[in-house]
Amino acid sequence: MAKTHTDSYTGTAKWLHWGMAAIWIASWCIGILATHWRDELNPGHGLTILHKALASTLLFLIVVRVAWRLSHPAPALPASMSPMMRRGAKVGHILLYAVALIALPLSGWYWSSVADKPIMLLGLYQLPPIVAPNETLYDLAKWIHTLMAWFCGALVGGHLLIALKHHFIDKDEILAGILPTRNR
Ligand code: HEM
Ligand code: HEM
C-alpha cells in the first residue's frame, strides 16, 4: 500500500495519542504520590495497586498504536522546520514510543515480577510474571523503574513544551494536526 503524507492524524491516531497520554500522565502522578506520600496517602497500598492497574493497560494499547502508526503515516512536518529540528522530532518520538510507552511499563512489570507482587490489569485480570521472583534483583529493578520514570517525566515535559512552542511561538500547524476537533 502506498504511504502518502496527510494533513492531520487520523481520528483513531488522535484517540490513541490522547487516551494513552491521559493514562500515562495519571499513572506518573499516582506513582509519585504512592511513593513520596506513602504514609499520608498510600498506607494500604491502594495507590500502588491503582498505579499498576492503570499503567499496565499501556502494554496492550501500544500494540494497537504501533500497528496503526505503521499503516497510517503521520502528517508531514511544516516546511519551516530545519533538517536538524526534523531529526530532533523523529528521535524524540522514537524515544517516547520505545522508552516511555514500552520500556517503562515493562520495567514496572519486571519489578513486580522479581518482587513476587501481582499486577491486576484494570483490577480485572492478573498479568503473569515475566521473570521468576528474585529478592536479590529487587533493588536493581526498583532503581531501573524509578530512574526511567524520572527520565520519561522530563521527556514528556519537553514534548509538551515543544508542542506549545510550535503553537504559540512558531505559530505552525503541528499541534492543530493532533487536536481532536481540528485539522491542519
Ligand atoms: C506494568 C506497568 C507498571 C508497573 C507494574 C509499575 C509498578 C510500580 C511500582 C510497584 C511502583 C512503586 C510504588 C510504591 O512503592 O508504592 C512504581 C513507582 C512509580 N512508577 Fe510505575 N509501574 C508501571 C508503569 C509505570 C508507568 C507507565 C509510569 C509512567 C507513567 C510509571 C511511573 C512511576 C513513577 C513516577 C513511580 C514513582 C517513582 C519514585 O519512587 O519516584 N510506572 N511503579
Ligand atoms: C502533555 C500533553 C501532550 C501534548 C500537548 C502533546 C502533543 C503532541 C503533538 C502536537 C504531536 C504531533 C507531532 C507532529 O505532528 O509531528 C504529538 C505526537 C506524539 N506524542 Fe504527544 N503530546 C502530549 C502528551 C504525550 C504523552 C504523555 C505521550 C507518551 C508518553 C506522547 C507521545 C507522543 C508520540 C509517541 C507522538 C508521535 C506520534 C507519531 O507521529 O507517531 N504525547 N504529541
What's the architecture, going by CATH? Up-down Bundle
Number of domains: 1
CATH topology: Fumarate Reductase Cytochrome B subunit
Provide the residue-averaged pLDDT: 94
CATH class identity: Mainly Alpha
Shape: elongated
- List ligands, each type once: protoporphyrin IX containing FE
The low-pLDDT segments are: 1-5
Instruction: List how many beta strands DSSP finds.
Output: 2
Provide the structure class.
mainly alpha
Rg estimate, integer Å: 18 Å
Give the ordered list of helices and strands: HHHHHEEH
Note the main sheet: 2 strands, antiparallel
Helix count, DSSP H or I runs of 4 or more residues: 6
Distance between the termini: 24 Å
DSSP strand (E) fraction? Answer: under 5%
Q: Give the % helix.
A: 55-70%
Detailed description of the structure:
With 184 residues, this protein is mostly helical. It has one domain: Up-down Bundle (Fumarate Reductase Cytochrome B subunit), CATH 1.20.950. 64% of the residues lie in helices and 2% in strands. The protein has helices spanning 11-36, 38-41, 46-55, 58-71, 83-114, 138-168; strands at 120-121, 125-126. A two-stranded antiparallel sheet has the order 1-2. Strand 1 (120-121) and strand 2 (125-126) form a beta hairpin. Helix 1 runs antiparallel to helix 3 (46-55), helix 1 (11-36) runs antiparallel to helix 4 and helix 5 packs antiparallel against helix 6. Bound molecules: protoporphyrin IX containing FE (2 copies). One protoporphyrin IX containing FE is lined by residues 24, 27-28, 31-32, 34-35, 42, 48, 51-52, 55-56, 58, 104-105, 108-109, 111-112, 119, 145-146, 149, 152.
